TrEMBL record:
Species in which this protein is naturally found: Spiroplasma alleghenense
InterPro entries membership: Glycosyl_Trfase_fam3, Glycosyl_Trfase_fam3_N_dom, Glycosyl_Trfase_fam3_N_dom_sf, Nuc_phospho_transferase, PYNP-like_C_sf, PYNP_C, Pyrmidine_PPas_bac/euk, Pyrmidine_PPase_CS
Pfam families named in the record: Glycos_trans_3N, Glycos_transf_3, PYNP_C
Domain Pyrimidine nucleoside phosphorylase C-terminal: 345-418
Name listed for the protein in its UniProt record: Thymidine phosphorylase
Amino acid sequence: MNFAELITKKKKGLSLNQAEIEYLIKGFISNEIKDYQMSAIAMAIYFQGMDAKETSFLTGEMIKSGKTYDLKGVTGFKADKHSTGGVGDKTSLIYAPLVASFGIKVAKLSGRGLGQTGGTIDKLESCPGWTGEISEAKFEEIVNKVGMSIISQSQDIVPADKKMYALRDVTGTVDSIPLIASSIMSKKLAIAGNGIILDVKMGSGAFMNTVDEATKLAQAMVEIGKNHHRNIAAMITDMDKPLGREIGNANEVREAYETLQGNGPADLNELTEEAVGITLLQAGIFKTLAEAKEAVREKIKNKVAAPILKQFVEAQGGDFSVIENFEKSFKVKNTIEIKADKSGYIRYIDTNKLGYLAMQIGAGRATKEESIDFAAGITLNKVSGEKVLAGDVVMTLKTNKAVSGEFTNQGKLTFEIVDKAFVEPVIIKVISDLDLK
Ligand code: URA
């Protein structure tokens, strides 16, 4: 095959066939295809796009570049959830135990946080001893026994994506829908499963800034999932405001645990009920979404899924008592309160900045090498839409770093106070073949 011809074909907006895409990925991995050639084709894809078939072939070839999990030893319906990443997003830690409480299995690969977004693996590591690096046999054993397990996305899963992403990052080709969709879905589909619910975030704290862009990405990912024989749906959800009241690590695990016991914030409840509800429909456990969501609310009311989160953490070596004794376990040197300078209703306007602030006070890392302070974090005393009086505390920063006026200045830039009450839904739309009435 002549690589220059492939570039020309894509440059003219023609579709590449499976054999051509196989050649592209195999050649890139073996270094037969050089970075400059791959950059040229990535740019051609950026401008010309890819149709659903091409995107699915690309995803399939990327998956074949690395390790996959067949989960042959796991019995029953296997469900998974993926979020494109947000600030304060601890939904997976609520979703998985709830789904498991219905007898559905959740075997999940998760990543670490970088920059303004947190990562599930970092959050769980706030329980001393917990590890996401366990053998495949142990992973399957825990999924069968507890109903859920989460492991770290290792280096050997989809190495083609790692290599391509590094190149896209420096060639202005990250924000191409087929390239993002195949990158995300290749890592999702590397693990066997039946149902997938995607949470595509949109807004200031997300990768996609508009509903239109988020919808296109969600549709591309749903098509890939269907072509790989998954029962898949996607929610487009609002990341113009952070999710829940806690941003950090240990404090997010605690908020997830509290939510499982009926003490969660409204937005987190709404999102989780929808995600779990859709999974229950995919698994055929309920006929309508209304019935499924009612059953989820019942599980939360009866607190039956909270012990599953604890059992899972302990099964992977973690000490969950630190979450149960949170105040004693996660002390910080400094607490900074940011107050309202007038009365009105809080509206968060820069979730991205809030995520970076959490990182700066120790809860995240700017580079992969940095370590995380599990006790550092932000508590939103007031969430979007909540009423405040002048002088009320809007948010509390907890940090072991030296207090800096800059932290307060940054925090104040993340919200405004408006005169009129407002309500903003978390779920903007759902893309699914299911009847969601
Ligand atoms: N996340 C991914 O995993 N890949 C992308 O291309 C963008 C976001």
